[in-house]
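Hi F.,

I've been meaning to write this up properly since the lab meeting, where we talked about keeping a consistent format for the predictions we share between groups. The idea is simple: the sequence comes first, exactly as it goes in, then the structure tokens exactly as they come out, then a line or two of notes. No screenshots and no reformatting. I'm using this chain as the first example so we have something concrete to point to.
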Amino acid sequence: MMENKIIELEAALYLVPTPIGNLEDITIRALKVLSSANIIACEDTRTTQGLLKKLDIRYEKLVSYHEYNERERAVELVKHIKENGISVALVSDAGTPALSDPGYRIINEAINNDVKVIPLPGANALLPALLGSGFATNEFVFLGFPPQKKGRQTFLQHAAAMPQTLIMYESTHRIGKLIKEIVEHFGEETEICIARELSKMYEEFLRGTAREIADIFAERKELKGEIVVVINKRDKAKEE
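Output, unedited:
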């Protein structure tokens, strides 16, 4: 890993993507910001400490920023930036902050208080999954995680009515259920792609109709790791 030089950062909220698996996906700019920020706000301080150690980053201060303290911590950090002229780097446990992770509140708090927000490009799971699916990329909708219970069926019904390529996250414990629901709501001939463990040793893309993927899951019993589901809404026969 390259030497991480400390640079002077302007007072702002920096949104810093971190690797979803392969450490080499960290950007040079992210390394500089994490090495130089006055405060790094993170979902789990232990997880981020481990990452910073692997990347050989010496940091000034870590604070927790997660779904249970997000409202209060957002106000606190933005006030700190504005009144004391410091730099705060926001990270999630992996990937890009605020994409199905905490971050929305502090971003809006910063904007509403005229604090500069600087989002860095970088690692996430949804775009590699979309590209690897082979489905249309000119129009797509990211839906995050489906509701676990209440509102799940309504969510899927609305999704089925959308004409764009759809991208969802799902847990390893509920992926079997989601595959069955796609067959039910979208149709068994709907093309889907399941991308799991992106950028990691066991990265895998499963492509086929919803019925074919359901058969694969029935045989394998489980799909482990971080999972992204991409659903094709284009009619290939009409396009051809």
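Notes:
The radius of gyration is 20 Å.
The beta strands are 12-15, 39-42, 62-64, 87-91, 117-119, 140-142, 165-170, 191-196, 204-209, 227-231.

If this format works for you, I'll send the rest the same way.

G.
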